[in-house]
Input
Amino acid sequence: MAAAFLRHPLTPLSLNLSALAGATYLLRSHHIYNLEEHEARMDELEGTLRGHIGYIEDALDRIEGKGGDKGQKMNELYNQRGKDEKKQ
Output
C-alpha cells in the first residue's frame, strides 16, 4: 500500500519541490542572519575608526598649536555612528 502513492507521477516532483523550498528557506534565513551580523561588525568598526581619526586630529591640532579640549574631536567622531544617522 505504501508503495502505491510513490508510483504516482507527481510524488517525486512534489518531494523535490518541497526539499528545494526547505533548503531555500534555510539558506535565506542563514544569509539574513549573516548580513545582520556583518552590519553590526561594520558599525562597530566604523565607530572605532572614527575614534582613531579623532585621536589623530587632536594630535595634529596639538602639534600645530591650535590647542582645544583634549579628546574633543575623538568624542565627537566616535559618538557619531553611521547606523544612528540612517533615517528610515
The mean pLDDT is 80. Residues 10-64 form the longest helix (55 residues). DSSP finds four helices and no strands in the chain.
